[in-house]
Amino acid sequence: MKSSIINLFKISLSVALLYGCNMSSPEEIVEVSETSNTTLSIPAGFDFSTHQKVNINITENAAYAKYDVYAYYDASGKTPTEAELSGKLVFSGVPKSGVLKQTINLPAYFTKVFIRRNENQNISLTAKQIANKEVNFNSSEAKSTANKTAGKSANIDSDGDGVLDADDAFPLDSTKAFILFTPSDNNIGTIAFEDLWPSTGDYDFNDVAFKYQAKVFLNADNLVVGFDFAYLVSSNNTTGVNGIGFQLDNILPSQIESVTGSILTRNFINLNANGTEANQEKAVIILTDDVRNIEHEFTHLQWGTYIKEASNFKVEEVSVKFVDPINTADLGVAPFNPFLILNIETKYQVHMNIQNDPRYPAGMVRKFEVHLPFMSATSYISNSTFNWDNHIFNGTLDGLKQHDANYISENGYPWGIHIIGDFKVSKSTIRITDAYNFFGAWAESGGVNFQDWYTDNPGNRNSGLLE
Q1: 350-366 pLDDT per residue, tens
Q2: Does domain 51-176 have CATH number 3.40.50.1110?
Q3: Quick one: CA dihedral 69, 87, 327, 329, positive or negative?
Q4: Are 33 and 50 in contact, with CB atoms under 8 Å apart?
Q5: Letter string b/e over residues 374-396, b meaning 16 or more CB atoms within 10 A of that residue's CB
Q6: Nearest to 404 by CA among 384, 423, 429, 432
Q7: 432-453: pLDDT as tens digits
Q8: CA angle, corner 399, sides to 394 and 405, nearest 5?
Q9: Domain assignments of the chain as residue spans, ordered by start
Q10: SS3 state at 420
């Protein structure tokens, strides 16, 4: 399985993907002097989200039918062929008691999904519009065409879970039957962070960036039994010792049976027996406590200079199993609540003249995090206290400036951004607004306009400014 994951990250992606938004009142504006000659007016409350969470609701009238749901975009609006849908699968399932429901992450500019229904080799492919972030499909809408080359499927169910072998991703394992992918079975997402929270940075979003794909394993009842989270660090332009992880906001640590694959060498992360992080109210999964732990090819330059950008990192994977199957609504949609753990090595404190910065005490500590906008912090940062440069943190987030507590800077910018697709980060010190021509207009519109600003469509990127 890992070899297929590795191949995933080596392929050249062919589909441009994008974001959604969380609009607030257009009268509430933050004026941002983003460069000496550029001012952005960002709607207050805009969360810089580039995706939309779409609820898929399927009603089946027959006793048994297999469904595959695909994320496919074509500007012309044409219906894709089966070959064109290859690699675009988001989830599969067989309705239970006539109902199949899942929530998926799609780029904001996607307007439809494609639903493939297979009832004993009578196959239909239906394009369904996304309306108010929902898709409702009834099997009576299906216009089936018999697959004459396949013949009738044998009613064989080797593991006895109620799903036919031909429809079962794990025909010999009764605990698993289907997979829900984020973003899809042959695509990746990207998460990029600035690392100076609560100070503002240069907004190049290349301090730490990683690509990911999640595979959520479902049983015959379409409940979650576990998941794999594969990731590839794509940028590390910082002197910091930065870890990465994610929080499952609706899951308790006790609901996790095991977590395997975490890479920990810095000795400041404490784990429970099941592999979740200790002393956390919610289930927290640490991928690594230092991205440089991951096998890679990069060099430390001479003393007095920054660490060279990391390159050729190895694809890693963390696997999570649950004690009892859970609903996908409780799990949430990958990448869940990702965050960056901030730290810095003692020798760099002197070099960077920040030895009095309480964010960076001598040695490694588990105290400071960067999350995506408006995402909740873990128990570690919620229970921290510090006062630095008028950024007061009293352990409840109430004392910290509200914009900092929401992971939105005073000038309206985030410290992290999530893209459903292969996002190319800016070169060091190159602002994202310089590298991407329409980022500013997208942000000013609250995510309504230029929703494909980060794709390789003509005019979007200044390729010479990208890593």
Answers
A1: 333 344 444 444 456 78
A2: no
A3: negative
A4: no
A5: bbbbbebbbebebeeeebebeee
A6: 384
A7: 999 999 999 999 999 999 999 9
A8: 100
A9: 2-16+30-44+183-455, 51-176
A10: coil
